[in-house]
Design a protein that fits this description.
Elements (H helix, E strand, L loop, with lengths): L6 E6 L7 H12 L4 E4 L19 H11 L3 E6 L8 H10 L13 E6 L7 H13 L10 E3 L2 H4 L9 H21 L6
Parallel strand pairs: 1-2, 1-3, 3-4, 4-5
Length: about 190
């Protein structure tokens, strides 16, 4: 059952207050307001430890799981650390997919934007993250792919995208993501 606007959680792969990923999340929300966005914080997530998976798991885990569960779709915006995703993002994926049989990411349409100060646009992190998302049973948008290099130059002092080419690309990316979410949304999330 299609309904607009879709509730879309944005998970950024960085804890830094002034991170490029968080700045890009804010740009995307302003640039493409057709979704109802929620920034889902990773700041309160302790490291996943199955011993803590009791009737009263850590409060940060409960809040994170509820936030993800409440979304129609998830947009990941991540930097790259050592050709992979940051540990905080992998930890969030582990928390959200546990305990076995209660994966809050299950069947939620998703897309990935990766960015880095270098020219490769966090290509390694983007593809490494996609591997995990497939295992989580999330329909991952295949095209267009979003690898944004030289992230320090992409966002201007006004908090908006600093060049028209990138702005046009991101607007097109989000239009395709909206179609992707509509295609994969269903009333039944099992």
């Amino acid at each position: 059952m299609e309904h607009l606007p879709f509730k879309t959680g944005i998970i950024t792969g960085s804890l830094r207050r002034d991170s490029f990923s968080l700045k890009m999340a804010h740009c995307v929300m302003k640039l493409y307001p057709s979704f109802m966005y929620e920034l889902i914080s990773l700041c309160d997530l302790t490291l996943y430890n199955e011993d803590l998976e009791t009737d009263t798991p850590p409060e940060g885990w409960k809040n994170f799981r509820e936030s993800v569960k409440d979304q129609d779709a998830i947009l990941f915006i991540t930097p790259e650390y050592n050709r992979s995703v940051p540990a905080v993002l992998k930890n969030a994926i582990d928390i959200g997919s546990a305990p076995h049989g209660r994966n809050v990411f299950n069947r939620k349409p998703t897309a990935v934007i990766s960015l880095s100060p270098g020219k490769m646009g966090a290509f390694g992190a983007n593809h490494h993250l996609r591997q995990s998302l497939v295992f989580l049973n999330m329909p991952v948008m295949q095209q267009p792919e979003a690898y944004l290099g030289e992230s320090g130059k992409l966002i201007g002092g006004d908090g908006m995208i600093a060049n028209q080419v990138t702005e046009d690309f991101l607007r097109g990316f989000m239009e395709e993501f909206q179609k992707w979410v509509a295609l994969h949304s269903s009333a039944e999330k099992y």
